[in-house]
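Running this now, will post back.
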Amino acid sequence: MKLTFGPEPPVKVSYEAIENMTGLKFPWVQQNDDGSKAFYYGMCPECDNALGLINPFETLSTEPHGRHKLEPVQGFTHDLEKILACSRFKRAARSGLVNGCETAVMTPNGRSVRQIVTENEDLLIGIVTEVTGISPSLTLIRALFRTFFDTPLYLRPTITPGNAPWLLFGALRTRPLHGQIIRTESDTAKAILRKVEAARIGRYSRLEARPRHWIDIRFTLYRHRISGTDPPCETINFMIVSKEGATGDRTLLEKSIRLRPESFLRRIKARENPTPRGSRIINIARAELQQHIAQHPI
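Update: finished.
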């Protein structure tokens, strides 16, 4: 484990090390709600995520060690995907994660997240268009919901009602951008037109396809980060990638988008009746959810 935020070498878990290196201060030592119990934390020297320190007083038979925390810990950066890729992560702990609908257990938070996403997706689409310049087609929206529900992404430990709609777009792995409406003044359109000679924004501001030319849109869920500030700062990466023949992927645009969960929830409370297109989007979401529940009644 590490007991500093810098590039320090790892140390063995012990109460002496915790006391000497941290002064028993926050965030290394934290109390439960009523102050009756202390929790001790360190950092993984490989992935820099929080470790819960087990048996630091050496009062149990088990050797003192650190265990990755699958939920965010105040004061520490939380990157679930880095934890899963960490060579020090105990594979047995994966049983606490959701890997598929067959083994998933529905929770009150999961149900709340699913409801908010389904009933407010038209609002989210508008926010996505504001930030990226892309107005997804109804076909893309339907595919997006199907992936989101079937994974199911909404049961991940880091998903909340406020950030779920943005992380919904983590389901966009390699979806084609051709045929989608793109605002010509957006950074997305400018990057594509500047870096891809064959690209063209055609009728109704839709990106037109060209032979041997493919452009993907990706919201990279594996780069969803929760920084341990107060309030926490959440980000997700947005990428536009070009594939041209056998030359491989070429990144045209990559930017880090700051998620604003509280702002999104305020917009939900202040919203009015959806537009006709908004109603169609919501109906698509409801239909996909009904189909998902019929196939996976969890």
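The first helix runs from residue 15 to 22. More later if anyone needs it.
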